[in-house]
Amino acid sequence: MKLWAGRFQKELDQKTNDFNSSIAFDSRMAREDIQGSMAHAAMLGACGIIAQEESEKLCAGLQEILADLEAGRLAINPEAEDIHTFVEGELTRRLGDTGKRLHTARSRNDQVALDLRCHLKAECAGLRRQLVGLVRVLGEKALAHCADVMPGYTHLQRAQPITFGHHLLAYAEMFRRDAGRLDDAVRRMDVMPLGSCALAGTTYPLDRELTARLLGFSAVTQNSLDGVADRDFCVELAAAIALAMVHLSRFSEEIILWCSWEFKFVELDDAFSTGSSIMPQKKNPDIAELVRGKSGRAIGDLTALLTMLKGLPLAYNKDMQEDKEAIFDAVDTLKACLTAFCPMVETMRVLPENLRAAAAKGFINATDCADYLVGKGVPFRDAYKATGALVAQCIREGCTLETLPLDAYRAQHPAFGEDVYAAISLENCVERRTVLGGPAPANVKAQAERTLQWAAEQEGTA
């Protein structure tokens, strides 16, 4: 039976009913719907709106339904209009007229707003744990490779020497910010809308603060129209997820490059690679490629939510049923990607000798060569020009700055001395970059340890 039966003389067309139904995707909120109903029933009894005995029967009946669902003794009816209809119908089937009292002083408008907030708060906690786990893996990997020199890139061109640990910790910083964005989203999500009813509240003397306390919310909504019409929390969470997926996609792109024969900086574990149906030599980074591809889904989910909301008048509109599929897909996409990505990074083998060989090419110590002259009192622009000429000579002669004879250096500028070779040593170049946030191995080691300390604190293992 439809919750809105009475006004209508005909049953809804079956195809229209299927189109209108949301049970296929909102059934995942069954636990939150039942817990919200239990808190509502307890509040109704405490406020004397229904008899205390009936309140207790409602809570007990709802608890039994939840237990039956979780034990597999009760299946959600796919013909139900939504999860709210199913739960209330099942409760009424078990309790009779007492079950019909549950919806007193409540609308599906504020009910679904409540369920969605409760469900997404729980999902955020799980996503956050996964992000913290990835940050921990990156910290461990960075600590192990804090001194392994590699080329840093700009424009995908070798630029300056850094270490592999330094590179990994850049992503650790991104994922720490992603965890913080989830915290921010939850902080604004943690507001209880029940009591807003359809849009204008109710004449019943509700204790909304009691309901909020029973459900673990920190505050209640302050405007009944906003209470049912607000989906900012979905958009904000979708934005945080989309950005986390962009970070995963960027990292995936680099891993895909790194495992190619052109780079060969890392090798992925067999458990996180696939082969070719025709080329027996292939070892493909499919997990990283899928993560990169799935970032588009999360961006699309954010766009769908924004587009759905942009033209809606207050308060509730059926368009808002579209919020759940988009935000659930975004949550599920990030969850699935982190589940595969974290162990892939944890088990990948780094090849330091290939990192160092790549760093030896591309003249990534040219800036240090120019800085050497600056240290001798030469203006930077003159030092830059002299070093550029030396690089051009190396390219013509097929050598590197490390192997270029001292006479060639002095031909460009008399300030060059024997100590230039120590100045442009890749290891020395990196070790001298001790500025806060720089890639000196001591810096990277300290940063990795701070990262691991943060992860331990978040995981409660510090």
List strands and helices in order, with pairings.
Layout: H1 14-20, H2 23-26, H3 30-46, H4 52-71, H5 83-95, H6 97-100, H7 108-144, E1 149-154, E2 157-163, H8 164-189, E3 191-192, H9 208-215, E4 219-220, H10 224-229, H11 232-258, E5 266-267, H12 286-309, H13 322-347, E6 349-350, H14 352-359, H15 366-375, H16 380-397, H17 406-412, H18 420-423, H19 426-431, H20 441-459
Parallel strand pairs: 3-4
Antiparallel strand pairs: 1-2, 5-6
Explain the overall architecture:
With 462 residues, the protein is mostly helical. It has three domains: 91 residues, Orthogonal Bundle (Fumarase C, Chain B, domain 1), CATH 1.10.275; 206 residues, Fumarase/aspartase (Central domain) (Fumarase C, Chain A, domain 2, Up-down Bundle); 100 residues, Orthogonal Bundle (Ribonucleotide Reductase Protein R1, domain 1), CATH 1.10.40.30. The chain contains 20 helices and six strands. The strands form three sheets. A two-stranded antiparallel ribbon has the order 1-2. A hairpin with a 2-residue loop joins strand 1 and strand 2. Helix 7 runs parallel beside helix 13. The protein is elongated. It starts with 13 loop residues before the first helix and ends with a helix.
